[in-house]
Design goal:
The chain is of the alpha/beta class and 410 residues long. It is built from 14 helices and 15 strands. A 7-stranded mixed sheet has the order 2-8-7-6-5-3-4, sandwiched between helices. The chain has a 4-stranded antiparallel sheet with strand order 11-12-15-14, covered by helices on one side. Helix 8 links the parallel strand 6 and strand 7. Helix 12 crosses helix 14. The chain is globular, with a radius of gyration of 22 Å. It starts with 6 loop residues before the first helix and ends with a helix. The structure holds pyridoxal-5'-phosphate (PLP). The site of pyridoxal-5'-phosphate has 15 residues, from helix 4.
């Protein structure tokens, strides 16, 4: 084992991974791109909140309300530091990446984009970085163009520069593809988009959980990610925005907490980030997110990335001579821990179902990236996705399982 982290030791901290599946099978969890498992410290942090600190935040004057507010705001500050952001006011807590991107489209997009404006997306986007823009484009008569994905699963950067010549108002792209594993050159792409005068939205759902992301260095205008993909709970996500943009944007949802004053005549909005956090937020989940940040920091994001790269290379080796197997996307050295593949003549759903019977959890389908599958002329793929708790033994099990699939369908 060359990995810099002992993943067996890490795996021990995830109760679900010790639980057998289908009565007596060892759970081989290869679906972390959909959602990651949660370490005990995250689960305990949420239990502790409900057992000892539960109260609504920001409004109360009693001790519990103050403690709950402090815990929630500490989680925001920790998450901000984790992604290299100095000013935690720039972090809006949302439900997930999808809501973060919708928030931008519904507020910034509605206010600042006008008929005929161009939005540049890429062919490898998740539906959550496509559909909000489609909805907005329909409403405001905007144009959308897509940066081409090359056969090797990387973006055609020449085409990107050509599209920037058309002076888009907005560029939105994923930091890492949830299907191809491609890690896009975000810093370079952001700089080029800024030179062309565009506002840049980065979908970091598959990036923040897997490698060190520093937004002070990257300088996107907006950056979105989800807690549940980074060992945190479901129901909590993040939208980072530059302060001047957030200040200029109208609110998203109306209600409690997002206002400063309400009269019979109208209302005035609260300061950021509260302006975008109407109603009682996911308090325990926010605190769980803070615990997930602590957990990932204790391992170290560079160690997480190195481990996943090593395992991805191992996955490529293990899968190399599986008959009829084709991996889509770039080589193991330039991708994150996502391996999507096809098996000639066997539908991905059948592959996933047989693997499941062996205790191996993978995903089959379009992975919320239908246009990308269309680009590769594939109705669906099977996806094995890795995280810090996976081991070489998991990939050996995948190989054995695939041999079984082929045997059944031979
Ligand atoms: N973007 C990417 C690249 C993803 O992989 C996902 C989820 O799989 C999302 C966005 C959406 O995340 P969520 O469902 O947490 O909103």
């Amino acid at each position: 084992m060359n990995s810099v982290i002992s993943n067996e030791e890490i795996a021990c901290q995830f109760p679900i991974l010790k639980q057998p599946i289908h009565q007596d099978k060892r759970l081989v969890y290869l679906d972390s791109a959909a959602t990651a498992q949660k370490p005990l410290v995250v689960i305990q942090s949420m239990n502790a909140f409900y057992e000892h600190t539960n109260a609504n935040i920001h409004r109360g004057i009693h001790a519990l309300a103050e403690a709950a507010t402090e815990a929630y705001e500490n989680a925001r500050a920790k998450t901000a530091r984790f992604i290299g952001v100095q000013d935690a006011r720039q972090l809006v807590f949302t439900r997930n990446t999808t809501e973060s991107i919708n928030l931008i489209a519904y507020t910034w997009g509605r206010k600042f984009l006008n008929k005929g404006d161009l939005i540049v997306l890429t062919e490898m986007e998740h539906h959550s970085n496509l559909v909000p823009w489609y909805v907005l484009a329909e409403e405001k008569e905007l144009r959308i163009e897509f940066v081409r994905v090359q056969d090797d699963g990387t973006l055609d950067m020449r085409h990107y520069l050509d599209l920037l010549e058309k002076k888009p108002r907005l560029v939105a792209f994923t930091h890492m593809s949830n299907v191809l594993g491609t890690i896009n050159p975000a810093k370079e792409m952001i700089q080029e988009a800024h030179t062309a005068g565009a506002v840049v939205v980065v979908d970091g759902a598959q990036a923040v959980p897997h490698f060190s992301v520093n937004l002070t260095d990257l300088e996107p205008d907006f950056y979105a990610f989800s807690g549940h993909k980074m060992c945190g709970p479901t129901g909590i996500g993040v939208l980072y925005g530059k302060l001047d943009l957030l200040n200029a944007m109208p609110p998203f949802l109306g209600g409690g907490d997002m206002i400063k004053k309400v009269t019979f005549e109208g209302f005035s909005t609260n300061d950021v980030p509260y302006k975008f956090e109407a109603g009682t937020p996911a308090i325990a989940e926010g605190i769980g997110m803070g615990a997930a940040v602590d957990f990932l920091e204790s391992v170290g994001m560079d160690a997480v990335f190195t481990h996943e790269q090593e395992l991805t290379q191992y996955a490529f080796n293990v899968l190399a001579d599986v008959k009829g197997l084709r991996i889509i996307g770039p080589g193991a050295d330039v991708r994150g821990g996502v391996v999507s593949f096809t098996l000639e003549g066997i539908h991905p759903h059948d592959v996933a179902q047989i693997l499941d019977s062996k205790g191996i959890a993978v995903r089959a389908g379009h992975h919320c990236a239908m246009p990308l599958h269309q680009r590769f002329n594939l109705p669906a793929t099977t996806r094995a996705s890795l995280y810090l708790y996976n081991t070489r033994a998991d990939l050996d099990a995948l190989r054995t399982g695939l041999d079984k699939v082929i045997e059944i369908f031979a």
